[in-house]
Amino acid sequence: MSKYIARRLILSIPVLILSSLIVFGLMRVMPGDALTALMGESGNVSARDLAKLRKELGLDLPYYQQYLIWAWQMVSFNPGYSIFTNEPITVALKKSIPVTIELAVLALIVGLVIAIPIGVVSATRQDKASDYAGRVAAITGLSLPDFWLGTLVITFAAIWFRWIPPLGYASLWDSPWTNLQQFLLPAAVLGFRLSAATMRMTRSTLLEVLREDYVRTAQAKGLGDRIIIYKHALKNALIPVITLVGGQFGTLLAGTVIVETIFALPGMGRLTVEAILFRDYPIVQTNVMLVAVTLVTLNLLVDLTYAWLDPRIRYQ
Question: What is this structure's pTM?
């Protein structure tokens, strides 16, 4: 197991290097730069002041030197300062990361609570009314875009109930009730979308497992349906589901931009969008690399989970 983990970690290094090169290059080929955006906010800036500022920020260096400096900052866990606000990037991340993580975790919980039971019911009652209802719900969830559903939910809540979630962010530990109001609707929107794919995967894999020989043997021995499904079949059926959920959780961490914007949550997605608009290279590059590291870590954890679900799987 330890050799497998070490090998996976070594193989992740080229992935992270390639990711860093891509995001570094894409930020440089975009029209305009951070100083152009900063000039627009600050008014008239002389050419001398502009050249001085460019030198102070290191933007006058060759691209390869800029990349090496930034790579060393990432390796040393000191990503530097925002070009636009001159605030340490670590300060901005400490404010935004808890918001995105809480939103993603709540959405994942909502999605699994919806998807697993409905997927099991659809598989065990194939071609019954409950099965068709579950499949319609899954297709609906896959078809509705997050931005449309989020806008619809917050609009209907305001019109019908005269209520909108409190703006900003209140910590779960400081104000649990306000925090719940802020995250309930966005987590439900993201969780419903996540549950759709998970529901379909649970149904498909469980149907395959229920046709296996060991399931028929258990039925022939007189075991109850609940024991067969929940103790034996479901555990094996969850292996592809875990793969899907692991990828979706990484997507949630990286793709909450629209929902965070609609519900005014100051998370990483919103921070990244604002940084892109202002060409704030250090923040965009740091956020993308954090997402890349998260996805690599999640993929490793998902692979290790297989051995827990199925004892026949061994890593060498």
Answer: 0.79
